[in-house]
Amino acid sequence: QVQLVESGGGLVQAGGSLRLSCAASGRTFSISKMGWFRQAPGKEREFVARILWIGISTVYATSVKGRFTISRDNAKNTLYLQMNNLKSEDTAVYYCAAGLRQNKYDYWGQGTQVTVSS
Prior knowledge:
The protein is mostly beta strands. Helix content is 0%, strand content 54%.
């Protein structure tokens, strides 16, 4: 089992920045990839970014490319999402997820709210 706990959400004005963190515990040695997803009110959960647990490969949703940066600190078992130039449409609950294999995410955090005021 892998446990994930997000933190760092909050209220920020448009154009501002936030950094989300996701602390992983448990069988972290089994993680292959980690990602960030978000869900806005009335919408389905959508992919934001992904990073391999080993290596440097990253993937971003088109809507956040150039503004968000996903990174990790393996020594701390922590995943990050640096969010710059935030827009009102970035308002959502942000979830981190961990996958043991390439084709799915097996574990999810409880989510952290990000609200961007215009």
